[in-house]
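Sample entry (348 residues):
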Amino acid sequence: MTKNTSKQDVRNLSYEELTQRLESMGEKSFRAQQIFEWIYQKGAVSFDVMTNLSNRLREGLKQEWDLSPPMIASKQVSKDGATKFLLDLEDHEKVETVLIPTANRTTVCVSTQAGCKFGCRFCASGLGGWTRNLTVAEILAQILHVKEEAKKRKKPLSHVVFMGTGENLDTYENLMKAIRIINSKEGLHIGARRITISTVGIIPKIKRLAQERIQVELAVSLHGYNDESRNKLMPVNKRYPFTDLIQACRDYIEETNRQITFEYILIQGLTCTEEAAQELAKHLKGMLCKMNLIPYNPVSEFDHNPPTESEMLAFKESLFQRGIHATLRTPRGQDVSAACGQLRHASK
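Predicted structure, serialized as tokens:
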């Protein structure tokens, strides 16, 4: 289906904005609730199916707004069931989103930017450069598409993780607007604690997020155990140094009383060492946090190797002995390059 580029996508509108626009058209405010229900709960991708609206209103909506489904350029299914979708956007930028199934539920991994500015030296997402932020509608369209796929598999969508392409806090306004629609009872009605925002550590935006009073999960990509080690992998550390980031995280926890997850990549001989465990324990002592240990997933442009299983288990145990709670993530979708660090900014 071809999008009509002359119209705004209705999914860019918050519930309040849609209500106001409908009232300006002479419609009752409850029509916004009906339209939101069709889009976010029933999966409508056309105004024509909204049969509890008058023909006149449906025609007016079609004249005013677009509601086309995303264009799916490709679909790859991993042997573990994870499914990667390549979305072809209106301007032919392409972004990837991933359906991640478990025994009884589905998580969607969402992209918020076409590309990434931050160039972490283990991640494919920044290799193609950065073009633009995604719109609210483009963010939500990924989730709605995966929701329908999950429904077909009889494993309903229950969790949303912003861990795809791009730095989520770099597109703060669009991200938060999308999250409020995801969380609202009129929208997707997914609990805030089932929504996770990942960030490379944009300190001013972490401080801003602490004031939002929404109980989303925050995952900070640490990937180093001090400034020297983090500088090797994450250029952003020169702007937002490790020690400043740790303090910002402590302030976030104090302000929100919410636990932070530190994402930490395990690279043989670099981040998975006894020195690393000692340093992490020193910096994270007494903090309300947990660590998510992520085995390095191969990216051809980087000369890294994952540790052996015994090395990873020993590292986890070393953290535990020092009072740091850590879990070891099982890679999902690695065979279709859908695992952590493997999503790319595809060319036009």
